[in-house]
Specification:
By secondary structure, the protein is an alpha/beta fold. The protein contains 11 helices and 8 strands. It has helices at 17-26, 33-43, 61-70, 83-92, 119-131, 144-153, 163-167, 170-189, 205-209, 221-230, 232-255, and strands at residues 11-15, 47-51, 75-79, 96-99, 135-140, 157-161, 193-197, 214-219. This is Pyridoxine 5'-phosphate synthase.
């Protein structure tokens, strides 16, 4: 199926965390991340992603309450593997829960979850989330050991960390892209649905969107930043267009 044109539609999940970051910088209710989620839906997003951090630096519990109650698109709740976040996920039952590494000292997520090393600790979280009907995803580095750990943990979905690829240039970027391509192919072989995200922009999204075994991209910070200049609707529509163009061209090349 990796070369099958059946994977035509590449889903776009829009992360609204940093709308909340701007709101929290001053306090009050503006700008409203739930309003941003609704606008993202109108602009062509396939899902909404929100990371409820332990320190609540952007998305709040009230935001999650409202997203569950007011948004029709699937909600992907990014969460650390903690008792508090597990309880919140089980109470709200989002469409998906993506388990991510989390440190208070980091500005943003610094890398993938070491699922291979933490298998024993993560097993209960993947089992309880899955048993509740929540689609479990692991945010990991594009490495075979991490993919195999996801299978062992019973997670049906992985999200490959694209940060190193986005930050690199020249031959180094090509090397990181090759790792993502290989990992996405391996994920399919292992029966995992493969997503990707972190740091993707208009300039970097095309080569990742062209990978046929990736089903979904999750993009947030760049879109929210670009919205300052062009508006959120315009930023999402342009990203959607670039993704669709790259995927269509890739399918055309394989079928030629």
């Amino acid at each position: 199926m990796s070369a099958n044109a059946a994977i035509r539609h590449l889903r776009l999940g829009v992360n609204i965390d940093h709308v909340a970051t701007i709101r929290n910088a001053r306090g009050g209710g503006h700008p409203d991340p739930v309003r941003a989620a609704k606008q993202a839906a109108q602009a062509g997003a396939d899902g909404i992603t929100a990371h409820l951090r332990e320190d609540r630096r952007h998305i709040s519990d009230k935001d999650i309450d409202r997203l569950v109650g007011e948004i029709d698109l699937p909600l992907n709740l990014e969460m650390a593997a903690t008792e508090e976040m597990l309880a919140i996920a089980l109470r709200h039952k989002p469409h998906a829960a993506c388990i991510v590494p989390e440190k208070r000292t980091e500005v943003t997520t610094e890398g993938g979850l070491d699922a291979a090393r933490l298998k024993g600790e993560l097993m209960r979280y993947t089992q309880e989330l899955g048993a509740a009907g929540i689609r479990v995803s692991l945010f990991i580095e594009p490495e075979t050991a991490q993919l195999e750990a996801a299978v062992a943990l019973g997670a049906p979905v992985v999200e490959l960390h694209t940060g190193a690829y986005c930050e690199a240039t020249g031959a180094e970027r090509d090397r990181h892209l090759a790792r993502i391509v290989a990992a996405a192919r391996k994920a399919e072989e292992l029966g995992l649905e493969c997503h990707a995200g972190h740091g993707l922009s208009f300039d970097t999204v095309g080569p990742v969107a062209a990978i046929p075994t990736i089903h979904e991209l999750n993009i947030g910070h760049f879109l929210i930043g670009e919205a300052i200049f062009s508006g959120l609707d315009s930023a999402i529509k342009r990203m959607r267009s670039l993704m669709d163009k790259a995927r269509a061209e890739a399918i055309g090349e394989r079928s030629a």
